[in-house]
Every structure is written in C-alpha cells, then in structure tokens.
Amino acid sequence: MFLRVSTKASKVIGVIHYFTFLLWLLDPDYLKLWLEIFISPYERCLDVDFEKPPSRPEELPPVLTLLPDNILQVLRHQLLQCVQKASDGLEPEQQNLALLLLKFLIIICRNLANVEEIGTCSYINHIITMTTLYIQQLKVKTKEKELVDQSQAEEFVRHALAFCESLYDPYRNWRHGICR
User: Fold this and answer.
1) Sign (positive/negative) of CA torsion 95, 152, 158, 46?
2) What span, in angstroms and rounded, lies between the C-alpha atoms of 71 and 45?
3) 2, part of any domain
4) Into how many domains does the chain fold?
5) Helix, strand, coil percent values for the chain (each to nearest 5)
6) The organism sits in which domain of life (predicted)?
C-alpha cells in the first residue's frame, strides 16, 4: 500500500527542490547534488534486482507539478549531452550523472500520474541509445577493456531495464508472473 504525502509536506518539498534548482542554475555541480538529494529518500523505488519479486515502495514519489519548473527540459538536455559524449566514452563523472538522471526518471515514473508525460518525451530514445553503447562496450573483449571496471556500465543497463519497466509495465505484471 502506498502512503500519500500530505499536501503541505508536498509544497514544502517543492519549495526546497525549487531553491536547490535555482542554486543549480548558478553552478552546474548543483544539478548532481540536487539529483542525489532528490533520489536519496526514494532509493527503494529503484528495484533493479529482476530475480526477486518486485517490492512496493512505501512512499509515492511526487507528481511532476511539485518539481521545479523546466526540470524535465534541463534533464533532457543533460541526458542528450551524455548521449553525445557516450560514443567517445564517458568519463566516470559523466557516467555518474547519466545514472543519476536515469534514477530520477525511474523514481518519477513510479508515480503513475507521471508515466504518460515522461513516456511521450525523448528520454526513452536517449536511454536506449546509451544502453546500446554500454552493451556494446560490455561485449567488447579486449585485454584493455577487460581490465577496466565495467560495473558502472552494468548498473546503467540494469537501471535502463527498470526504466523501461516503469514506462511499459508500471504495475510490474511481467515480473510478478516470472517470480511465481
């Protein structure tokens, strides 16, 4: 059963997110900080272990209207930059940002009121492109690449699958079926 956040608490959270977002406008490093702060209380929504039955988060993530204005456009722009840089190989900091953006989208989609808006944007195209690049990177078996830690690429791919699940099977019917 989902617990609903009170309207007053939602407004306070929205104001806090808005001011953090304004700080990000002054310094891009704050976007990463803002995402980390936002994601932290909703970490349980990021259920990427597909071998066990899905869990039900106790808290419902906020609806998009409670988030800072233009956050989706900013995140789409950042994700597009990550996609453009991914073909040349992302630096660890960029990989971390791409993963944070993906986690944010998964959390937002766990509130079913947000799924349609996220699903109609270009996020899925960017995520699929990056996932394809990561899978190709994981498939290459050169000695140089075998020495490099691939855990971040694997983690991104798992989260990309969870993002697709949140868009196309938000009730997790498929996962419930295979875990029986």
Assistant:
1) negative
2) 20
3) no
4) 1
5) 70, 0, 30
6) Eukaryota
Residue carrying the six token digits 């980390």 = 36
Whether residue 28 lies inside any domain: the answer is: yes
Q: Write down the pTM of the prediction.
A: 0.78
Residue type present at position 60: L
What does the pLDDT profile of the chain (180 residues) look like in tens digits? 344 545 676 677 667 766 766 666 566 687 888 899 889 888 877 888 877 777 665 556 766 667 776 788 788 888 888 888 877 776 788 889 999 999 999 998 888 888 888 888 889 999 999 999 888 888 875 545 565 667 888 999 999 999 999 899 887 788 777 766
Counting Cβ atoms within 10 Å, is residue 30 exposed (0-12), middle (13-18) or buried (19+)?
middle
62 burial (CB, 10 Å; 0-12 / 13-18 / 19+) is buried
The token pair at 164 is 């697709």
Tell me whether residue 16 is in a domain: yes
**Is 1 inside any structural domain?**
no
119, two tokens: 């699903």
